[in-house]
Write a structure and sequence with these properties.
The protein is an alpha+beta fold. It contains 13 helices and 22 strands. The protein has helices at about 10-20, 20-25, 250-260, 260-275, 315-320, 340-355, 360-370, 395-410, 410-425, 435-445, 450-455, 465-475, 485-490, and strands at about 45-60, 65-75, 80-85, 90-95, 100, 100-105, 110-115, 125-130, 145-150, 150-155, 175-185, 190, 195-200, 205-215, 220-225, 225-235, 240-245, 285, 295, 300, 330, 430. The strands form 5 sheets. An 8-stranded mixed beta sheet has the order 5-4-8-2-1-11-14-13, with no helix packed on it. β1 (about 45-60) and β2 (about 65-75) form a beta hairpin. The radius of gyration is 25 Å and the shape is globular. The protein starts with 10 loop residues before the first helix and ends in an 8-residue tail after the last helix. It is an enzyme of class 3 (hydrolase). Belongs to the peptidase M1 family. Its EC number is 3.4.11.2. Keywords: Hydrolase, Metal-binding, Metalloprotease, Protease, Signal, Zinc.
Length: about 500
Amino acid sequence: MHRRIIAPGALAAATLLLAIPASAATHSPGTPGIGDPYYPDYGNGGYDVSHYDLRLTYQPETDELSGTATISARATQDLSRFNLDFLLDVSEVRVNGAKAEFTTARQHELVVTPRTPLAKDTPMTVVVRYSGVPSAKSAYGFTAWQRTPDGGVAADEPEAAWWWFPSNDHPLDKATYDVSVAVPDGTQAISNGTLQSTSSKLGWTRWNWRENKPQATYLATLALGRFDITTGTSESGVPVINAYSKDLGDNDGAARASVERTGEILDWLTGYFGPYPFSTAGGYVPNTKAGYALETQSRVYYSPRQFANGSNTSVVVHELAHQWYGDSVSVKGWKDIWLNEGFARYAQWLWSEHEGEGTAQQLADYVYASHPADDPFWTVKPGDPGPDKQFHVAVYDRGALAVQALRNEIGDKAFFTLLKGWPRQHAYGNASVADFQKYAEQVSGKPLAALFDTWLFQPSKPPAPAARAASLAKAPAPAQPKSWKKIQATNDVHTG
């Protein structure tokens, strides 16, 4: 213990400190970020969420959203205050039943000070009452809420929750969800998981959705508008719920011809990745202007632009592959994005093989030959691309090349064992590229550090393996596989 002399001018302050109970004096604020170097202010420290209960009302004519979020969590430290990531206008916050003080900070932080500090491991029930117009809110110069002619949509990466519910917005803090939304009769509310029930009263219909498996905040989605909803069951027994805006125009037929194959594609993917990890599947196509698709958990978001040139099963494959690689097994940090995008793109290569439109190796050869050594493509490191290049095409294509290089190195038996084993090993949790390398070495019995470094972390074109180099040297430039244009059409899956 260190002693120090208190200056006379500080005596009054010291006396006040002595009046604070010793237990409370040890409490400290949770950090305003969870510690991700790509996004230092995203997520929060000091607590862990287990469940979000969102009871909302939405008016499509004005884009007004109001309601109450009840957040079940646990303090992970002796906690004096904590942050939630949120943008709408808050009228009241309660923590464990008592009114709490709250203010805002930075661009998207709601700072909550409970009446009584919370001891480590104390259960927390946080109630937030709020309202606002999501489309009128922005942070860092953008909005993740998409206004549509008949409502609105929340679907974006790496952030979307701030515009519709307060959260600990980082994949490290996954939780289960109940989403209940009242909308005027004739409007539908689409969200993740299972539709538990609907009920109508006095001109309003309430839609109650439940996602009973842990879900990252950016994978939570909400779509409000006029939809045609279809239901079915895959051959393996997975319930499938799809929804299409009633004003998709010329894109409607191609969207349905693609998304209605969800059950078939899902069952096909189980042959590579193992049992489907969620209770329902499906997708929705709202009338949005943005061009991307997103693997929102169990209910994929697709932009109509994905179907502007006709049906596009390749994008459906990509987003459904994410249900294993990205949704069930989520990144520990955003630098681990290769674990999501490299494998979702590789699933498209496997689908190409299945459709007889080019093998995975032919696609790998074509991508490798298409980018000369001085192409900036090779300066992007899929294993740690940086926040500005997190969704660069190299993360997808060079990322899939890395997967094919791994397959060639360890052989098909170990590789396909690995593809199925990884989602089972880390089901409903989080993992890093380093964790994947360790698991791949365990499954294959081979040291793989050099291969991972070469294909994921070096800002240069990897040399072709000797056998491939000799083969490629004797042959003309690889022909473009038939599936290439379809795969390329999905390059903007996460950019607008």
